Amino acid sequence: MPAFDVRWIERWQNMVNQDSVARLLGRHFTADVMLEMGPHAYVVSFERGAIGRIQHEIGAESCYQFALRAPAETWAKFVQPIPPPMYNDIIAMSHTLHGRLKIEGDVKVMWQNLRAFAWDLDLMRAIRE
Amino acid sequence: MAKIEPVNGHYIYVPFEGEEYRIFYEESGKGIPLVCLHTAGTDSREWRHQLNDKEIAERFHVIALDLPRHGKSIPPKGWWKEEYKLTAQFYSDFVTAFCRELGLERPVVMGSSMGGNICLHLALRYSDYYRALIAIEACDYSPGWWLDWLWHAQIHGGEACATAINGLMAPQSPFEYRQETWWYYSQGGPGVFKGDLYFYSVDHDFREDCEKISGKIPIYFMTGVYDFACTPEMTQKTAKKVRNSECIIMEEIGHFPMSENPVTFRKYLMPVLAKIK
User: Fold this and answer.
1) Is residue B2 part of a domain?
2) Which end of chain A has a smaller Cβ tally under 10 Å, C or N?
3) What is the number of other CB atoms lying within 10 angstroms of the CB of residue B117?
4) Using an 8 Å Cβ cutoff, are B169 and B162 in contact?
5) How far is A73 from A79, CA to CA, in rounded Å?
6) Residue B1, domain member (yes or no)
């Protein structure tokens, strides 16, 4: 299972920031997003499609617009190069039939940026530890 | 020499409930009418591979139509006055009116997603008319999709609707074809995908009706393992309740077999078509 530690999330940050399609699709994507991956939690700040800051010391004063929360086992399936059925997509994992991922907060912001955000998350599958 | 497909497009005027609907359809081949129904919020382009399949065209007259409000079929008069909500009654009656207006004799209907779900209603309501039904990604109840986000002034409908369905496709399906399906989804009119999903997730609740199907028409259920809206288990459970039905589970494919992975889909489809006489 991936560690989902700070090194891992920073690798993802680099992948997103080096991906030309991510920059194209996310040119209006500016939002702070909480990613909870089992015991690890990060507030990821997207700035016009790039990932600027990642906060990993989360406290009562941490602010974000929407959050994705799932056990590490769920994310581990999602990031496999060929993810298994029902784990290949955040809409799949959060669908009412499956409930493997919780999406909370100002969900409208996520829907407004869904194309860019989903593209960025898919890049997690190319991370090699 | 120019490369031209053996597919022809036409417009037909379908009289229905006091309106005259201008409906676009594409066709190819000769033989048993095989009417193809597109999924929610998109159009007949999803069926381009099957329309171009020489072996299918030898035995079947393949017809793919755009429902009203979809693709090149225009909406009914006064469409802007109320929210669009597709119902099982309109959908099943309209598809039948289209087939009859074309003069089709005992056609086969093959539909995916909402086009698969409507096959259950066609089996119940028109058991004397249809020859066989191929219900792709279909089940008796598919909740959870009638969402406001899919028609919202502050959200780009094309991008949101298309990305919402992206994960319904299998990772093994060629990326190019998945992107092509995404592209079709990005082009629906405002509120059309959501309106179709009213049928898919709300009006279509067939859980108490499966056993009422006479069994006069064979029904072939076909579901891909990556379909998270209508899982293989949901289809299997439905098929068990429907007389004269078969259930085929397709590996390495999702909710849009005909457009996301036509090569893999063909391996499953051809044996089904061979059974239809």
Assistant:
1) no
2) C
3) 30
4) no
5) 10
6) no
Q: What would you report as the CA-atom Rg of chain A, rounded to the nearest whole angstrom?
A: 13
Instruction: Quote the domain boundaries for residue B185.
Output: 8-275
pLDDT band at B155 (very low <50, low <70, confident <90, very high): very high
- Contact A97/B229, CB-based, under 8 Å? yes
C-alpha to C-alpha distances, B81 to A55, B5, B38, B76, B78, nearest whole angstrom? 48, 39, 25, 11, 6
Under 8 Å CB pairs connecting chains A and B tally to 63
Overall domain count for chain B: 1
Q: Which amino acid is at A81?
A: P
Residues of chain B contacting residue A112, judged by C-beta atoms under 8 Å apart: 154-156, 160
Domains in chain A: ranges and CATH: 6-126 (3.30.1050.10)
Under an 8 A CB cutoff, do A114 and B144 touch? no
| Chain B residue with minimum CA distance to A25 | B159
> Which residue in chain B has the smallest CA separation from A95?
B144
Instruction: Give tens-digit pLDDT for B131-143.
Output: 999 999 999 999 9
**Best residue in A94, A114, A119 for a mutation probing chain B (most B CBs within 10 Å):** A114
Please give the residue of chain B at the shortest CA–CA distance from A93: B228
Instruction: Give the model's confidence band at A128: pLDDT under 50 very low, under 70 low, under 90 confident, else very high.
Output: confident
User: A74 by DSSP, 3-state: which?
Assistant: helix
Q: Is the pLDDT of residue A129 over 80?
A: no
Residue B3 lies in a domain: no
pTM over 0.80: yes
Q: What is the pLDDT of residues B45-55, one digit of tens each?
A: 999 999 999 99
A81 token code pair: 């190069």
A85–B226: do the CB atoms touch at under 8 Å?
yes
Average of pLDDT values for A50-59? Answer: 95
CA A39 to chain CA centroid, Å, is 15
Which residues in chain A are contacts of B229 at CB distance < 8 A?
95, 97
Closest-CA distance of chain B to residue A57, Å:
31
